[in-house]
Structures are given as structure tokens and as C-alpha cells.
Amino acid sequence: MRLDEYEWSHNPRGIHNTNVYIYHLDRYQQIRSGWVKLVSAEDEFANNIPELLRAGITPIIRIYRPGSCGQPADARTYADIRRYVQAGARWFELWNEPNLGNEWPGGLPFAIDPTDRDNVIAPLMTHWLDWAERVIDLGGYPGFIPLAESTSPPHAAIPWLEAMVGYLREAHNQRFRAVIGNGLWCATHPYIYNHFYQEMPGRGPLSARPPDQQNAAEGGWHFEYPYDPICQGHDPGRTVWGGTALTPLGDPVGLTAMGRAFNELLGRDFGAGAVPVIGTEGGIWPWPGPGEAPRADDTRYPGVTWASHAEATTALFNWIASDAAPPWFFGLTLWKENDYWENPAGAVPTVTRLAGTSAPVKNVPALSILEGVEVPSLEEMPEGPGPVHGSPDYHFVILTPGLDPDWFFQTAEAYWARFRPAVMDTDALIAVLPYTRSVAVTVIARPDQVAQVNAQIRDRWPNVWYDLVVAQTSADLSGVFAQRLAAGRPFG
After folding, report:
1. For the chain, what is the total number of helices (H) and then of strands (E)?
2. Contact indicator for 146, 157 with CB cutoff of 8 Å
3. pLDDT tens, position by position, 1-53
4. From the CB of residue 264, how many other CB atoms can be counted at a distance below 10 Å?
5. pTM of the model as a whole
6. Would the CATH topology of 3-355 be identical to that of 394-487?
7. pLDDT tens, 302-326?
8. Per CATH, which fold does 3-355 belong to?
9. b/e string for 133-156 if b means 16 or more Cβ within 10 A?
10. Where do the structural domains in the chain lie, given as residue ranges?
11. Domain 394-487 is of which CATH architecture?
């Protein structure tokens, strides 16, 4: 399969239902949803699938069996999946957060620990693989098991993910490879707290608007944690795998972090490209009630308020659909329906904000699932950003010494307003970008500075998309950026 061949709405907005048997089409339509996660007891939603698809809403079905984690799926589960597929559903999940232990059979005589290969990892992955193959045979897409995105042992998500994928590599390599190429996707649970921000206009990528100034209709949003400039400036080199003294067990608490880790493991261990990732629980959570102080679980970032949650959530979905997000991240189903419509203070402002804005559309490139780009070993990531594939993750405009930022904004205001590059007077941020991120750097220099900046940026960072603009006068600069604006190209 190719990444663009998966069948879905191409609208990343989604919502998670409250419980089995709970279904409210009017609510899903009110927020212009493109996904709905339905936890079901059996096949109770099968008759609703056609109307969901007609409404442009793609269902994700999880048939819930209490205490079934690590156990073979029962015959009734497969009968229910067959009924859902016949009704038009394609996306399926099996278990939920095995690293917390809540859904394992009661009274287990062993600890829920990822280092216990025989009692935990082997039955978990072997029975999941049996289920995944059966889902594909029935005509569906099987979801890889979502983990609670913890950083605390023994629940830490990254060691669990490495153990799960590592077991499949060693014990079921060819079987899992076949699943990768025939409909596999990865479910994640990105409860991202306040790990996001919006830049202040003209102040660069390290600036952050306070929550009452955030605006979903404007640019400058960062949802790429832990790869965003604020996190990298605070702890250079941090990745989802860790890589720093502050993150010994990784840092997966971001919107796309666990999906990135999963796809990097597929690239490293199976030579795969990228499979779709959907957050089937999560969002900007938790948030405070009306009139309460901003919620700032991570004090490096602005907090979240009752009102700003609406702006940020709307922006989050727009970001997923933009070129800033990975092409494989297909969306998020917010946890959960009753928290948004049945809050003690009434429906949250986020419902009204989403209802009043058009749903974004995500374009997916034709990337082959099993012909991906080689990923370096996780232990030997080179310094600095990786190569650009398609569109870069970041775009920096760097002004060389002696050039006034006001001169740039006055001369290229329309260009900046359309493409929103991060404008700075230093190249220091290039060094803190990890290999898993890419960047285009537009350097504005005088003729006498060209040799210096070539050596400083182009020659030092071969993976950077290097875009040199030589300008002596305002007219020179204005002409260059006017041409780019007319052509719709941010880079030369």
C-alpha cells in the first residue's frame, strides 16, 4: 500500500464517544468532525456506519472485552468486525494501554513489565498479530496497540514500544512485515497538556503568546513537541527517545511524538516508510474551568484557560492538516464526548469554536509504506537536522549582521504574512534541531558576506535546504520576495 491509499475523510478533526452504546451523530456533525472513535460492546453501531460515511465521518471501531489484554480475540469479536466491515468500516483497534495494566486479566501472578518477554510481551504481540492478520483478511485496517504516554517506570511508553516492536522483529519478522504493507496503522494517546504555543508576531520562534492572545486564525503555532524551539532551547538534543540527562526514558508527551517513534522503529527495523498514525484518545488536556487560573503543567510553556482551549484545539487540527505536520499523522479523536458537551459549566467553548470554522483538509502524498527513507540508528543520530523530504519541517529567515529586522518586515511584509517563516539574526537554532526534523534556511546577506555565510551554514549543515538571497538595497530584496509571492514559492 501507499500512504495515500488508505480510505478516510481527510479531515483530521475527531471525537471519542463516551461509552459503549453511546452515539450522537448530531454532535459529531456540529464540530465538523472527520473521525469518530466508537468503543462498542458488540456490533451495536453497525447500522450507523453508512450514515457516518455519508456525513464525511470515518469511524474507528474498538470492540471492548474487559480483561482481554494479551488473550486471543474471541469468535464473537471477529463476527462483529465482519459485520462492521460489511457496513463500510475499515479502521479497527483491539486493546488499550497495556503498560498500565488496567485491561489485563485480573489476578495475574506477574508484574506488568516490558522486560518480561515470556509472560507479557510475547502473548501481547503474538495474539495481537493473529488479530491484525484476521482484520486484514476481513477487509479492515488493524491498529497497533496504543500506549499510555508515560515517562515513569515500569509504565514508560518508549521502553514498552521498543520491547513490542523488537519482539515482532525477532519472532515474527515476515508476518509483521506483511501486516505493515497491507493496512497497518498506529493508534496513539497524545494527551499533550500544554506542550504547544503560538509565536508572538515578529518576535521569532522562541517567543510565546499568553493564552488570552492566542488566535487559531493566525499562524506561528508549534505542536511538534519535543522538537519545538522552546523545548530544544531548554534541553538541546531532546527527542522522543530521550537523548538528554533530563529524559532518561524518552519524552513521548507530544501530539506526534509516539507516532514518530513508531515510524522510526519501522524504518530502522523493517525498512518501512511511514504508516498512518491517529490519536484515538487525547488532546489539550486537562483544562481549567471558567474563571480558573491557567493550567500550566509544564511551566516552560503558556498555560491553558477555559477560553484559550478553544483557540488552541482549533489550531491543533489546522496544524495537523498543514505542511508543518508529518504526512502520516491523520488526526485525533478528542477525549471525550461528554467532557465537551456535558461539562458542569455547559458545552465547552471549543465546541462553539469548531462549529464556527470550516474543517481543514489534509492532503496525503503517495509514499510507499515499504520503501521508506533509511533512518540512522537511534544511538548514532548525526548532529543537526536531517535531510528534507518533500517540505521542510521548519523555515528560518536569517539576517546577517548589520541588517535590520525592520528592513526585512517593511520590504517583505506580504511574503512573511503568507509563508510565516521564523525570522532571526542567528543560526544557533540549526544546531539544536534533531536529525528527525528538517529545515529550510533563507539567508539574507550583503555581497561581501556571501563567503562567510556559505561556510557558516551551507558547508557546515549539508542537510539544510540552503536558500541564499543577496541584497544590497530594499529594491533588491523587494523584487526577490515579490517574485516568490507571485509564484507561491517560499524558497528560491
Report:
1. 16, 14
2. no
3. 899 999 999 999 999 999 999 999 999 999 999 999 999 999 999 999 999 99
4. 20
5. 0.78
6. no
7. 999 999 999 999 999 999 999 999 9
8. TIM Barrel (3.20.20)
9. bbbbebebbbbbbbbbbbbeeebb
10. 3-355, 394-487
11. 3-Layer(aba) Sandwich (3.40)
